[in-house]
Each structure stands twice: as C-alpha cells, then as structure tokens.
Amino acid sequence: MIHTLQVTSEKFAYDVVTGRGGWRALRRFPLATYSSVFVLSEKPLWKRWGSTYLRESDLDQARTQARTVLVPSGEGSKAMGMVEVVATQLLKGGADRRSLLIVFGGGVVGDLGGFVASTYMRGIDYVQVPTTVVGQVDSAVGGKTAVNVGAMKNLVGTFYPPRLVVAEPLVLSSLSGRAFRSGLYEVVKHAILAGDPFFGQLEKSLDSLHPQNTRLLEPMLASAVAVKVGVVNRDEREAGLRLVLNLGHTFGHAFEEATGYSRFLHGEAVGWGLLTATRLAERLRLLAPDEGERIARLVRRVGPLPPIRDLPPAKVLKLLPQDKKAIGGKIRWVLPERVGKVKVVADVPVKEVAAALKTVSDK
Amino acid sequence: MIHTLQVTSEKFAYDVVTGRGGWRALRRFPLATYSSVFVLSEKPLWKRWGSTYLRESDLDQARTQARTVLVPSGEGSKAMGMVEVVATQLLKGGADRRSLLIVFGGGVVGDLGGFVASTYMRGIDYVQVPTTVVGQVDSAVGGKTAVNVGAMKNLVGTFYPPRLVVAEPLVLSSLSGRAFRSGLYEVVKHAILAGDPFFGQLEKSLDSLHPQNTRLLEPMLASAVAVKVGVVNRDEREAGLRLVLNLGHTFGHAFEEATGYSRFLHGEAVGWGLLTATRLAERLRLLAPDEGERIARLVRRVGPLPPIRDLPPAKVLKLLPQDKKAIGGKIRWVLPERVGKVKVVADVPVKEVAAALKTVSDK
Q1: What one-character-per-residue DSSP string does B319-334 give?
Q2: Cα-based distances in Å from A7 to A164, A237, B297
Q3: CB distance A97–B149 less than 8 Å?
Q4: Domain spans of chain A, in order of start
Q5: Candidate CATH numbers 3.30.1050.10, 1.10.760.10, 1.20.1090.10, 3.40.50.150; the one for domain B177-210+212-362
Q6: Shortest Cα distance from B84 to chain A (angstroms)?
C-alpha cells in the first residue's frame, strides 16, 4: 500500500512516498532533465540492496548509468572530511550543477548526503532514500542536513529540501533487531505528538512489529511520517512549531554525548529522553500521572535500553545547555501535557530537571 | 559620500552601503536583537583596522562585547578544516542560532565567513565588511559563499545572503599597490558590463586611482558595486543573467589553476581572462575590432600582469571545462559584443578558443 504525502517547502513541493514498492516512485521522477545521476550510499548496505534498488527504481534502465559513491558505515562518515571526499568523487565523476544525487542510506548517509547536495557547487538536487526506521519516519523528511564537528553533533548543516523522499519498508528487513527497535522510539515520539488513534494503534501492534514484518509496519510508518510531514509543512525552518519534534532529544543528546556516542543507538538515547521528559513534565504538573504512565509504558515496551544509572548526573546536566535549540543559553524544553499534546517551556528550574533525571536513572 | 543600494534577496532585502563613513551603517543595524555578536577576521588586517572598525561601528559601545575569531591570511584559510576551526570557536564562545557574525576581511575571509554563517547551526545572520576592492565591488554582494576542496576552488558553498554589506574605502588604503590594482580588473569588468558613462569615466580616472586616494575611488567603487547589485537583483541564484559576471573568469580560473594559484592574484588572472575573452569575441565576429581594442586598452592600463607566455596552451585549455558554470561539460562563454553588452555563447569551437589564447599569450 503506497502512501504519498506532499511537503510544501519554501521553494517547491515534494512527495514523500512510503510503503512496499515505494522505490518505484523514481520511475515517475524527471530523471532525464538531469545531466547525470549519482548514488551516495554506504558499503555493506549498497552491497545488500543496491541491485534491488536499481531494478525497482528503473535506474538500471536509465539513459546514462548512475555512478555510485560509497562511504564507510558509521557516524565517523558524518564529518567535514567526508564532505570533501564525496565532493571530490562527484567532481571526478563529472557531476555538475545539473546533476542529481540519490542519497541511499540511514541517518549518517542521509545527513551527509543532504549536506553535500546542499553545498556541492552551491547546491544540486537530491532524492532521499532512507533505509532505517528513523530515516523513514523522521530525518529524511524536512531538508535538515548536517555533519558533526569534533564532539558536537550536527554543528554545521543546512536547510535544503530534497526533490523526493521514497521510504520502502522492505529495506528494513535487513536491520538488526536492536537497530530496528531503536527507530521505534522515534515512532513512539511521533505517536506522543499525534495522540490517538495513532498512539492507541501503536499500543496494540507494538509487540508484533518486527523488521521482517513489513506489511504490519507499513501503516505505522505511514502514520509516523505523516506527523513529521505535518509539522514540517507548518514550520520548515524551525521558527517554532518544528521544535516539538525535539521531544526527548534534549536529554537524548546529553545521554549520547555523556557516553561518547558509544553506548546508545540514537533512538535508544531518545527513548531515555522521552522517559525523562515525561517525568519532568509530571514534576512540573504539566502532565497527569496516569497520562505520564501511559507514555512511559509504551516507551518501555519497545525493548531493553542500555543503562544510564552509572552516568554522573552532573555530567549529563552540564551537557544540556549546549543543545542547538538553546537560545541565549536557555533550554527550551519540549514536554508532554498529555498523549497528543506537548508544550515548549523555558525557565525550567535546574533542580526539577535534576530530580527528573534522578527518578528515571534510579529505576 | 555614502551610497546605499538595496539587494532584494529571495527572503529579505538588505542594504549595500558604500563610501567614506560606511562602517557607521552598523549603528542603525538592530544589533540588540541578537544574542551575541562575533567578528571573523584575519590577523594582520584586524590588528591594523580592528580598533577603528569597532569605534566607527559603535561595536565598542555595544551591550555585550563582540568576540573576535581570527584566521590566518591567505587562500589556505578557505578550507573545510577552517570551517571546523571557526565553528568550534563560535561554539566555545557561546554562539547560538540567534548570534550575529560580522565578516571583516577580503575574499578569503568573506567566502569562508559567509559559508560558516550559512551552515553554523544550519544558518545564522551575518554582515559583510569587505576590505579589498574585489570584495567591495563584487564578492561581498549577492550571498555566494564557498570554500575550496583540494585543488578545486569554490567546489563547496552556498547561496546565503548577508543582512548588510558595508564597504568603507578607507580600509583600502593599507592595500599594497599590486593587491589594489588586482581589484581594479574587476572594476573594469563591471565597466565593460555597464558600458558608458561608467566605462568612459573609468578611462578618464584610471591613472589617478590609488589605494590612498579614497575620495577619487568612492564614485568608481559605487558605480562598480551598482553593476553587481543590479545583476543580483535580477538573478540571485545564477539561473541565467548572473552568469554575465563570469566575464573573464572562465579563462581566469584556468590561468590561476595552471599556475597552482601562486603566480596571479585573482584579479590579475581575470585581467588576462578579459583580454582572452575579448580576442575570442573578435574571432567569432561578435565584437568589432575597435570596440575590442577599447576594452583591451583599458585592461592593459590597469598595470603590469605576470606573464602567461610560458604556460602550455594545452594545459590551460584542459583546465577550462571544469569550470563550475559548465553544464553537461559544455562551457558557456561570456563574451563582449560591445562596451556595455555581453552575450552568453555555448558551442564555441575549441580551435577558436585556442587561437584566442595564442593571440593573447604571444603579445
């Protein structure tokens, strides 16, 4: 079942196509208007899925063969040095301002590829083909691109919308169970934002969601990406509303940073972040305990999380204000008020934040 | 005499202020709306002019002191590695999404600073304070930013307009004679595009233009930047018209690259590029010989140019099609038809290009 949603960006509208057979959407894309086509991907992923993708998308039938640029898997590729490597490869392959870049991969390749597309010769068109849950429901939509600088994630980046996003759940079948579940925390985040019926459907189906079970996944992924599309359509450049997508991420980033990005998958850190934000909202009496419990229960059902108990709270707290969404040093917290509603709150007392962290860590 | 021109960018309009006292324009800029202010500059330049600038702009009176980030002088700073260095400095200094970056310097700092501003936390506001002739009449206006990748100049960059450009001719008084004259080639380029009366005025005053003679410079700089503003206002993103600014640059870049960027200042290479484009236009019977001679005479009067005679023509010609403005491998030549009019021509036979190069080299 193919779902197509439209994102209205500042300059143009583009489709987000989800569902089995989604890769075929490229057949209706005006490939012939580009001088050449390049695919950016990561090595093992492309080895596993490249030929399927080329066949499904009809790229293997194209007038001029798509050239492939492969980068190593892993966060290390999301770096300025890799931008140089990829740009150099594109140049060597003859990419010019009218070339198209197809970005085939997870969050790392998606963010890197989007950044390269936005800056190569001051910007070329690109297509996002996300291959992870987070990519499919969140990061590939909306045009946020970034690379890391030193220890600071996403310090350098752009807002640069893709021309098309195609999310094919089939590709998720090769994810490890852990990687798959990590992405589900972001699905839960979207369900908290959207509320019922999505939240309720997720409560019902969560235990049956498996990487191989792509049929059952389809409607959940479609609902989750619809949340993202809705938010982006109302706030492309994060002037305000888009901040709600940061739910669970303020603490999430701190947990990742406190552990040198080695302990948690991103979604797992967001899982802890969702739990902490929920407790913080309860402490501030924004959120009723039964609603808080409903949220926390769904988060915990996703799967086991690597521990945070051993992290020195002072260290975690110190890492908070460097969050990019801070303005003038103040953290703007995104906190649930109930399932389906969040609130942005500044001036949250540090002692409340610390207490919320303690409650979650001690469990 | 202060001239203010307005550039209408896609998202907002901004002023380009030229003339003696121009730095004071910052006093009317809404500095108080920013969370913090940073100045990016290069070491010797800031040492010479920093205190004057801070006083003139009233930045030394500001509520919060502007922090300074200094990079080494020279093209080497226009690199991805330096983007990381500057971004890290900004982060350490507490720059957030609402910070303002003032970019105080020549082409290198201008391009680097614009790129950093466009990508730091996905984009912060910036002000251009160009301190070279080329910067003041050309590169600081229009929002083109870039860094080099390997041997490829400006391979990575963005279109990202500044919030204000202030061009104070006083700062040109510390330029070397050679650096100053190098910039005059770009002024001549603009005069070729604009035609009379500007071209004629430049013919009259050229010999009296000196770095220290800022009063006489003022009207020439104002006329030259008006050409750039006019073109940018009609074509911000280089869809077509803006290409005319590339006059002299297709060959210019090849001359620079063929000599490893060590022999020519950028404007000098453009000087040779203007001469070659003029001869090429004559060969193609686009340009009458007397008009061609009028252009060539003005270019030659700017000053002595480092030789190109020893450059192997095959090497120079081979470097041409990598020009960024090429689409599908074809060079789009910008060629003068007369003083005040240029034409964009594709499909120029290589032998004509080679012959034009030979004519100019042999002189």
Answers
A1: HSTT-TT-BTTB--EE
A2: 9, 13, 55
A3: no
A4: 3-174, 177-210+212-362
A5: 1.20.1090.10
A6: 6
pTM of the model: 0.92
Rounded to a whole number of angstroms, the distance from the CA of A179 to the nearest CA of chain B is: 27
Closest in B83, B150, B159 to A122, CB measured: B159
Q: Phi and psi of B231, rounded to 5°? A: -70, -45
Largest CA distance in chain B: 63
* DSSP category for residue A15: E
For residues A221 and A166, is the Cβ–Cβ distance under 8 A?
Answer: no
Written as one string, the DSSP assignment of B83-137 is HHHHHHHHHHTT--TT-EEEEEESHHHHHHHHHHHHHBTT--EEEEEE-SHHIII
User: Which residues from chain B sit within 8 angstroms of residue A156, using beta carbons?
Assistant: 83-84, 87, 119-120
Instruction: Give residues 105 to 144 of B whose Cβ lies within 8 Å of A.
Output: 118-123, 144
pLDDT means per 10 residues in chain A (363 residues)?
A: 91 94 95 95 97 94 87 94 98 95 96 98 98 95 95 93 97 95 97 96 94 88 95 75 90 92 93 97 97 97 95 92 60 94 91 94 82
A197 CB burial (10 A radius; 0-12, 13-18, 19+): exposed
Q: Choose from A11, A34, A84 for mutation: most chain B CBs within 10 A.
A: A84
Does residue A21 sit in helix, strand or coil? coil
Q: What is the ipTM of this complex?
A: 0.90
Fold for B3-174, please state it.
Rossmann fold (3.40.50)
